[in-house]
Amino acid sequence: QVHLVESGGGPVQSGGSLRLSCAASGYTYSMMGWFRQAQGKEREEVAAIDSVGRTWYADSVKVRFTLSRDNSKNTLYLQMNSLIPEDTAMYYCAAQTDLRLSFRFSALDERAYNYWGQGTQVTVSS
């Protein structure tokens, strides 16, 4: 059974940093990503990483955010720097366990993922 557990969220001042973690178990790592959803808004892409370490970033977080993984711990990380209030959202970790999805959708399309964590809240204050 697949499990994704996010952690690292919390309140932070504008300009500060947070590191989100997503611990994955129960499947072989391939494609994973982060998405976020602000209150009252639709979920949007943040970043994604494939099995060989290639990364994709949404324009809104490029340069400020860095995605990485620790294969020995099967954990995904999102280093978030220079945070602004617009980054306030629930951040979700997503995993692709059906390889066929990679041929149908791009890495930053939420439809490419078939398993989701419960989310971790990030709140950036001015």
Would you give an account of this structure?
The protein is built from no helices and 11 strands. The strands form 2 sheets. Strands 2, 4, 5, 6, 9, 10 and 11 form a 7-stranded mixed beta sheet that branches. A 4-stranded antiparallel beta sheet has the order 1-3-8-7, with no helix packed on it. The radius of gyration is 14 Å and the shape is globular. Helix content is 0%, strand content 48%. The chain is mostly beta strands. The chain has strands at residues 3-7, 10-13, 18-25, 31-37, 44-49, 55-57, 65-70, 75-80, 89-96, 115-116, 120-125.
Question: H/E element string?
Answer: EEEEEEEEEEE
Bin the strand percentage.
over 45%
- Give the overall silhouette: globular
**If you compute it from the alpha carbons, what radius of gyration comes out, rounded to the nearest whole angstrom?**
14 Å
Overall average pLDDT: 94
Number of helices: 0
Unreliable stretches: none
Main β sheet profile: 7 strands, mixed
Structural class by SSE content: mainly beta
Report how far the terminal alpha carbons are from each other: 41 Å
Explain the layout of strands and helices.
Elements: E1 3-7, E2 10-13, E3 18-25, E4 31-37, E5 44-49, E6 55-57, E7 65-70, E8 75-80, E9 89-96, E10 115-116, E11 120-125
Parallel strand pairs: 2-11
Antiparallel strand pairs: 1-3, 3-8, 4-5, 4-9, 5-6, 7-8, 9-10, 9-11
